[in-house]
Amino acid sequence: MKRLKATAEIKTRLEFDRLIDDTVTLQLIKEGRELERDEQLLAVRDLFDPEISDLDEAIQNNVLRAEKYALDHRDELLPTKLKSAETSFAFFGFRIGNPTLVLLNRKWTWAQVIAQLKLLFDGQFLLVKTSVDKDGMKARLTPEQLVSVGTRIEQKETFFIDPKRDPADSQRLVAPAANVKEAA
User: Nearest Cα to 66, choosing from 90, 92, 95?
Assistant: First the structure.
């Protein structure tokens, strides 16, 4: 969403109040349209998802069957150490994945790997991540202590407009009451 700039200056309180009321009216219209959109999207998903799910299951089943056959008949399907071949409508084969470090066998745990790395390689391949506990700092440090470590607490104020919604129907505004305005 692009950043907008206020175009016309408001000159009176009446113009301000009308602008606020127009804004919440637009907000309710927007929310209603979003609700309609979401309901239609859900209806479309409900219409197509069962068939898509069945097709996905059939595809997965076919891939598993084809993979088993390909593993059992690899030399016939992929002679001379080829990694792929083709049919009339498709390419098939075996892709090499990215190298992944895994445990040697079930006798090993990652805790044992860490201990061995410390013993044999002086912890050379261990990562230690350090990050700032911002919540802890805000809760326990004084403003002077925060300054001593190069930080400060900042709390920005942002303008808001919230509709006065009808409790019985959140898509409706409450009826206007007597025009009593108090500073909050």
Answer: 92
Closest CA to 27 of 171, 174, 158: 171
Asked if residues 152 and 141 have their Cβ atoms less than 8 Å apart, the reply is: no
What is the tens place of the pLDDT at every residue in 55-76? 999 999 999 999 999 999 999 9
84: phi then psi, degrees, rounded to nearest 5: -150, 160
Tell me which DSSP letter residue 128 carries. Answer: -
- pLDDT (0 to 100) of residue 179: 53
Q: b/e per residue, 27-45, with b = 16+ CB within 10 A?
A: ebeeeeeeeeeeeeeeeee
What spatial distance separates the first Cα and last Cα of the chain, rounded to whole Å?
30
pTM (2 decimals)?
Answer: 0.59
- Rg, Å, the chain Cα set: 32
Q: Are 20 and 161 in contact (CB under 8 A)?
A: yes
Question: How does DSSP classify residue 39?
Answer: H
Question: In the chain, which ranges are E strands?
Answer: 84-86, 91-93, 165-166, 169-173
Task: Give, in degrees to the nearest 5, the angle at Cα 78 between 77 and 80.
Answer: 140
Chain position carrying tokens 């309609």: 36
CA–CA distance, 144 with 152 (Å, rounded to integer) = 9
